[in-house]
Amino acid sequence: MQAVIVPLTFALVVGAFHGLWWGVAVALVSYALRLGVIVEYRTGRRERGSGRRTGTTPSGRLEHAADTAGVAALLLAGVVLPVIALIGAVDGRSWTSVVECDVNTGRDTERARLVELGRQGNGVVGWDIEGDEVVNGLNCGGSEDDAVRAPLWRS
Prior knowledge:
Blueprint: H1 2-18, H2 20-43, H3 61-90, E1 98-104, E2 109-120, E3 123-128, E4 133-142
Antiparallel strand pairs: 1-2, 1-4, 2-3, 3-4
Helix pairs in contact: 1-2, 2-3
């Protein structure tokens, strides 16, 4: 039962920020990796209390399960997570809120989509996506679409 607490807690946090399916995926993967650590304790590859590796290599079914979990952890840390982070960095979506505001252009006031940089007074300081400049916006409301450009793989 205790092996489930940390993966579920982590899955709840990820699910709250990124959605249900990310939470479910994180729960399954982190639980599988947690079981791999438990198997390492049972096979004697880790010391109880300190968690240090002992260097012993007993053979058997549990040992193969521990090796598989170690390879999976290395693949996740070295390949999968960096690829997911790179995709998140170049997918064309804003990392902060996108709002629609009234912006004074000098001639008149028009509606513009802004990437929110900060709040000042009763308005928003933001990056005007169409105008390519920092502007002050008033009467702002949330935008349904957080895409600010096409993903890099479509450019």
